[in-house]
Amino acid sequence: MMVIVDYGVGNLFSLKSSFAAVGETPRVTGDAAEIARAEKIILPGVGAFGDAADKLRSMGLDRALRDAAGRGVPLLGICLGMQLLFERSFEYGEHRGLGLIPGSVRPIRDAIPAGLKIPHIGWNALKLTERKSPILRYVREGDCVYFVHSYYAAECDEAVIATAEYGTELTAAVQWGNVYGCQFHPEKSGLVGLNILRAFCESKGGAAQ
Amino acid sequence: MITKRIIPCLDVRNGRVVKGVHFQGLADVSSPVALAKYYSDHGADELVFYDITASAEGRALFTDILAETAATVFIPLTVGGGINTVEDFDRVLKCGADKVSVNSGAIRDPSLVQKAAQKYGDQCVVLSADIKRVEGQFRVFAKGGREDTGMEAIGWIKRCVAMGAGEVVVNSIDTDGVKGGFDLEMLSAVCDAVRVPVIASGGAGNIRHFVDLFRALPGVDAGLAASIFHFGEVTIPDLKEELARSGIIVRR
């Protein structure tokens, strides 16, 4: 069974609908036991990192997610959900993440030339790195996806499978063993996004990195 | 780099898409769900659903149509019209909207922008401003462009952005429906005043007008139009091809 983790952060209507469009009906749940039994896990999220990380911990979901990831269950974080996979974030102070992927989340503002608008919002082209990932199997170099974010994953070169150019190379997608993340919104990225979700649904579990 | 967005606007009344010249003389065009799917399949970067009668007559949005659209179309969806409270934000966000645009509701209660931005994030709150020149000044109009608020527009926009509006739709009443091109003077004044995405609306009559818009004003992030798309005068694939040929980065 596939689950979408519901921890009261953001709106899951579009995410549910987009999985339905690729023939999947993931269960939406905030129950740690159910998440621990899941065969695939989607971790969504919008809003502030600190609040979201606190919510995961207060619901006991941080442990359930780490246990599942450690067993090789495919886990896909989306937007803030991707950022939560990293070790820490510097969004309004310093906050601890799930630590499933080595790296930090930092303000885009510090990485790009002054004059570019923040947030990085809109459709931007994906640049694929040398690391081939099953979730990008249907993606072609230059395909556009929809971003909305003010922070980005840094110090994670080994995990980056795609970037987007915005004054610098921003991390767009990551993979670390069976743990995947998209900074953009696949559920809002048209056919390209649906194909990424389809590829995740098709992915097999495996050894944790 | 971020692509320039092309956004068809679907003005909805009684569950049907309408578009009027200068907001009057409405003509029925098509089903919102079918039209939204058509545009998404043909390369629209985003869609705006606007209930144009809501602020005047207090009609609630047809959220079932919105939900049906959001379950069919997987590009960003902005909803406006009749948004007066944080509860109105909640109602449309639950039905699949990604952003909510406020116009008359923010004029009546400017704190709405701040309250909504605090609850849902700046990226969720779009300020839509209907602007017309009155006595040499850009003036904000309310109630679907029918009522002069007496407020100077650039100051109003800056105030709303400071309160958390994450995007601004600038709709020039002076050029709307005329099909003589976007209101570059008005848009330029807004781009100079704020650091959030600016969406141009009102006046597009042909492909050239979009090329002129993005060439003249690099600060404009998106072009919005309705009737020229609805009546097939301009197709989005043709428009994007010409924009790309003119050196403007678009999603294709």
Terminal-residue CA separation of chain A: 22 Å
Which regions of chain B contain 5 or more consecutive residues with pLDDT less than 50?
20-29
How can the largest sheet of chain A be summarized?
Answer: 8 strands, mixed
In CATH, what is the homologous superfamily of chain B?
Aldolase class I
Report the CATH architecture of chain B.
Alpha-Beta Barrel
Query: How many DSSP helices of chain A?
Result: 6
Let me know the largest β-sheet of chain B.
8 strands, parallel, barrel
Count the strands of chain A? 14
Order of helices and strands of chain B: EEEHEHHEHEHHEEEHEHEHEHH
What is the CA-based Rg of chain A, rounded? Answer: 15 Å
The radius of gyration over CA of chain B amounts to 16 Å
Please give the oligomerization state of what you see.
heterodimer
Spans of chain A with pLDDT under 50 lasting ≥5 residues? Answer: none
Give the rounded overall mean pLDDT of chain B.
89
Structural class of chain B: alpha/beta
User: How do the strands of the widest beta sheet of chain A line up side by side?
Assistant: 2-1-3-4-14-13-12-9
Helix content of chain B: 25-40%
Strand and helix order of chain A: EHEHEHHEHEEEEEEEEEEH
Q: What structural class should be given to the helix and strand makeup of chain A?
A: alpha/beta
- Distance from N terminus to C terminus of chain B (CA atoms, Å) equals 14 Å
Portion of residues in helices of chain A? 10-25%
